[in-house]
Design a protein that fits this description.
Blueprint: E1 3-10, E2 14-21, E3 24-27, E4 37-38, E5 40-43, E6 48-51, H1 53-61, E7 66-68, E8 80-81, E9 86-87, H2 89-108, E10 111-119, H3 125-137, E11 141-147, H4 148-155, E12 165-172, E13 177-185, E14 188-197, H5 202-221, H6 229-245, E15 251-262, E16 265-274, H7 275-287, H8 290-299, E17 309-313, H9 320-330, H10 343-356, E18 368-369, E19 374-382, E20 385-395, E21 400-401, E22 403-410, E23 419-425, E24 435-442, E25 454-461, E26 467-473, E27 478-481, H11 493-505, E28 507-508, H12 514-529, H13 532-551, H14 554-573
Parallel strand pairs: 1-10, 6-28, 10-11, 12-17
Antiparallel strand pairs: 1-2, 2-3, 2-4, 5-6, 5-7, 8-9, 12-13, 13-14, 15-16, 18-21, 19-20, 19-23, 22-25, 23-24, 25-26, 26-27
Helix pairs in contact: 1-12, 2-3, 3-11, 4-10, 5-6, 5-7, 12-13, 12-14, 13-14
This protein binds adenosine monophosphate (AMP).
The site of adenosine monophosphate (AMP) has 18 residues, from helix 5 and helix 6.
């Protein structure tokens, strides 16, 4: 194998890269040996770019130099400030993709030049295009963009079952909740509906549990935890740790040592949490999952009993309470065989294998549907009044893609020789409430009275969610194709090349030194939080490690790093 194609889950908090080995998808480890690479980028004082774990660890110590969650800005023209320079969401994503590419190359021992990348089902045209652009900047040919729930279904092999079935994918991550209803017929996966809550995820469970812990500390100690913000930050972190342990255990201990109270004072506190207690604490958060599930079912015109399989993806579905809610609502046990944070990347690898003709997936066809309605702006005559800016849908949301739809429009004025074709995406009746994708001034219409000249506007939406608009002047048979140039977040080939060159000029941290950078960044982040003897001990270990780095004796560096990591681990656990 000289050249491999991989599947990539480009996530808001974490990203993963996967490939098929002997017909089975496996997630490939990064330079730290970890499967999840944080989608984070940070720039150090000397201009070195850090990506992944060391960048994420710097989020608390260097927030103005660090970018997180830039996936939320994909498809916009936002520039994210990293102190020494600004970067677009595509550039930041390209850095994450580039790291995954190199990690995959190291793991596979061959070049990786092509990828299938997943995006949320609700991503529109611009966001999909921006994702493709990010791949191009990273030097990856993006073979396909597929929907995350579709990928999850592929990972679970639902397309291989010999009957028609309906599935619902519940994706609960750190900060978002997505629900997708899928229909699978003869290996074809179709999205029936999507719904979600962009502000519901694991962090809400952490916050609820942290409030509970704070109330208990206040109740017992009357301590003022609001004077030093580090106190709340540490409690929140401890709450997340406890939440994860409670996914496995019935009860867990939370110990908070030397919580800073301001003015140099500290307090320590220890408590036990049981599943029963936390289930009560989490009930209101859990309840918020019901709305989007019901909405998705309603949009697909289905009742829960018509769903054959429930798939759980996203790290937060490891919580037993989430699985229980799913079981209650659908009257069946959800599928949880695959690690929930790896399933989407695995599905992308299954799709990627299609391209290389791997026998295990050869016969598979996958289709998606258009996530949004797309149309153009038109006007209408109401009595003596001409109303403009009316949205005329051409390609309806939910249309199976690739798809091509055509509508005929007519001139509205006598001798009208031009028509401005404005393309929008969205579901609202007025264009101003939808998202504008681009516009084209169609010229050269033959003269005639109003309504005499017709223009066929054809929308072709391909498997990668990219829209092409062909406009044909009917009487002339002359066709022009829309090139959207000015839409936000969309890059021309020249811009992609410029961005590629700019990214190539950045100074990157060497891959083999990543464990050192990560150890430093993680220890630094903890140092900020600690106080008293713990802080002193960590400071000493950090100084010894820094000295070892100066000395450049590899064995010495490794020994000191292991010690530092060990100390950080044990201090975090307390
Ligand atoms: P994702 O964005 O899919 O990686 O999900 C990350 C979220 O999953 C975070 O809120 C984590 O706290 C949460 N998470 C990860 N592992 C567990 C676990 N074992 N139990 C509960 N939540 C978890």
């Amino acid at each position: 194998m000289k050249n491999a194609i991989v599947g990539i889950d480009l996530g808001t908090t974490f990203s993963l890269v996967s490939t098929l080995r002997d017909g089975v998808p496996v997630v490939l480890p990064n330079a730290l040996g970890e499967l999840l690479t944080p989608s984070a980028v940070s720039i150090t004082d000397d201009g070195t770019v850090l990506i992944g774990a060391p960048a994420r660890a710097r989020a608390t110590t260097h927030p103005t130099r660090t970018a997180l969650a830039f996936k939320r800005d994909m498809g916009t023209d936002k520039q994210i400030d990293l102190g020494l320079r600004k970067m677009s969401p595509q550039e930041l994503s390209s850095l994450v993709l580039g790291t995954l590419k190199r990690d995959a190359e190291a793991a596979l021992g061959c070049a990786v030049e092509e990828a299938v990348i997943t995006v949320p089902a609700y991503f529109g045209d611009l966001q999909r295009q921006a994702t493709k652009d990010a791949g191009a900047i990273a030097g990856l040919k993006v073979e396909r963009i597929i929907n995350e729930p579709t990928a999850a279904a592929l990972a679970y092999g639902l397309h291989e079952r010999n009957r028609e079935l309906r599935a619902v994918v519940l994706d609960l991550g750190g900060g978002t909740f997505d629900v997708t209803v899928l229909e699978i017929i003869e290996g074809v996966i179709e999205i029936q509906s999507t719904a979600g809550d962009a502000r519901l995820g694991g962090e809400d469970f952490d916050a609820a549990l942290a409030e509970h812990v704070i109330a208990r500390i206040k109740g017992e100690q009357r301590a003022d935890l609001d004077r030093d913000p580090r106190a709340r930050a540490r409690i929140k972190e401890a709450a997340e740790g406890a939440k994860k342990r409670l996914s496995e255990a019935e009860s867990t201990r939370v110990a908070l040592v030397d919580l800073p109270l301001g003015g140099g004072r500290t307090t320590s506190f220890e408590l036990w949490l049981t599943r029963e207690q936390v289930d009560d604490v989490w009930a209101p958060v859990l309840e918020r999952m019901r709305g989007p599930i019901q909405r998705a079912l309603r949009d697909a015109s289905l009742t829960p009993d018509r769903i054959d399989e429930v798939l759980l993806v996203g790290g937060s579905t490891r919580m037993p309470a989430v699985a229980r809610l799913a079981a209650q609502m659908f009257g069946r046990l959800p599928l949880r065989k695959l690690p929930p944070d790896e399933a989407v990347a695995m599905g992308a690898a299954v799709q990627a294998a299609l391209k290389t003709g791997d026998a295990a997936v050869e016969d598979m066809v996958v289709t998606d549907v258009a996530p949004f309605t797309m149309g153009i702006s038109s006007s209408t005559q109401l009595g003596t009044q001409r109303v403009t800016g009316i949205y005329s849908p051409i390609l309806e949301r939910g249309t199976v893609i690739p798809a091509s739809r055509v509508e005929r429009f007519y001139t509205v004025g006598d001798d009208q020789q031009q028509i401005l074709i404005e393309v929008y995406q969205g579901e609202h009746s007025l264009c101003r409430d939808n998202v504008k994708l681009g516009e084209y001034q169609l010229k050269g219409l033959p003269r005639g009275s109003a309504g005499e000249q017709g223009v066929d506007v054809r929308f072709t939406y391909d498997m990668n969610g990219i829209l092409e608009v062909d406009m044909t002047i009917v009487s002339l048979g002359k066709t022009e194709t829309l090139v959207i140039e000015k839409s936000p977040g969309r890059l021309s080939p020249a811009q992609i090349k410029a961005a590629r060159d700019a990214m190539a000029r950045l100074k990157f941290h060497p891959r083999d030194a990543l464990p050192n950078a990560t150890a430093l960044a993680r220890a630094d982040a903890l140092f900020v939080e600690l106080s008293g003897p713990d802080r002193e001990a960590l400071g000493a270990a950090l100084a010894v490690f820094r000295a070892a780095l100066e000395g450049q004796d590899d064995r010495e560096i490794e020994t000191r790093r292991d010690r530092l990591n060990g100390l950080v681990e044990s201090l975090r656990r307390r």
